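Translate structure to sequence.
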């Protein structure tokens, strides 16, 4: 039997609540923007190199859960140390080189500049630890949720995705990532085995949103527009969780703020996709009177 979440709200009430929750997360992100926490996070986020699309694809292929990526010494400057034994993510670096060549037309020697590419190793945030904990962790603006999942949201999401041909596995995930969705045709969702029931439920909703919103994207689309994709998925998770009686704002507000660059306009621009997907997911996970009668 497919497990669902018992909820007495009518479809109309769920839709009204979804719109209210979508507006609420935008308001909370705007409030966060004025805080010292955001100022410290922004300084942290601006320290990272902007990689080419080719390198982003290489990073994602080797480490689909990657968030912030930097070289060994850059992490040290950010008060983090790459753990001993961590395998680097291999990408291409470039360096300007000057060389003297002969001009074929004039026969004279002249200096030319070109870019020489070479393989380098970078590391993801989850492969590092704080060096001085007294300085705090500016990267942490999404606070992991604790507690139980009395409504059975995780199991309801699992049954829903399984019914759509996806597998849902609980496995240990290295680093700080809570879950990921494999979109290479294998149709697989992975949720970290060490999460609390509440965080696992929220993460399952987030990954289900990715399945509904992004599993049909062209290759590279997610990587190129990851900020928008993550903003959409977490907004859906926040809204559906709220409808089902679970407040995830301690985690979701910081997560959405980070991926949207704390821009409420980005959140509002994704509202149509978010609300449509939230309605679909909430309806699918909620037990109706007909479901209860059939049981």
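Result:
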């Amino acid at each position: 039997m497919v497990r669902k979440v018992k909820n007495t709200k009518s479809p109309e009430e769920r839709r009204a609540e979804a719109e209210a929750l979508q507006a609420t997360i935008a308001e909370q992100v705007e409030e966060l923007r004025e805080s010292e926490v955001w100022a410290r996070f922004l300084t942290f986020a601006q320290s990272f190199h902007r990689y080419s699309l080719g390198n982003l694809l290489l990073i994602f292929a080797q480490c689909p859960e990657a968030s912030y990526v930097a070289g060994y010494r850059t992490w040290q400057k950010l008060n983090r140390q790459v753990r001993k034994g961590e395998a680097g993510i291999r990408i291409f670096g470039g360096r300007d080189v000057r060389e003297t060549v002969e001009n074929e037309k004039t026969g004279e020697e002249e200096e030319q500049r070109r870019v020489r590419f070479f393989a380098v190793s970078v590391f993801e945030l989850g492969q590092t630890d704080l060096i001085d904990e007294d300085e705090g962790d500016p990267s942490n603006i999404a606070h992991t949720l604790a507690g139980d999942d009395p409504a059975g949201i995780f199991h309801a999401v699992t049954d829903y995705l399984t019914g759509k041909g996806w597998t849902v596995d609980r496995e240990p995930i290295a680093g700080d990532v809570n879950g990921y969705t494999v979109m290479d045709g294998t149709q697989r969702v992975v949720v970290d085995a060490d999460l609390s029931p509440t965080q696992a439920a929220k993460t399952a909703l987030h990954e289900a949103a990715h399945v509904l919103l992004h599993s049909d994207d062209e290759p590279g689309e997610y990587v190129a527009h990851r900020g928008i994709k993550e903003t959409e998925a977490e907004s859906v998770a926040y809204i559906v969780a709220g409808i089902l009686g679970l407040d995830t704002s301690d985690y979701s507000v910081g997560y959405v703020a980070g991926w949207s660059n704390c821009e409420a306009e980005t959140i509002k621009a994704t509202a149509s996709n978010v609300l449509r997907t939230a309605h679909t997911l909430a309806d699918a996970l909620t037990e109706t009177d007909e479901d209860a009668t059939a049981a």
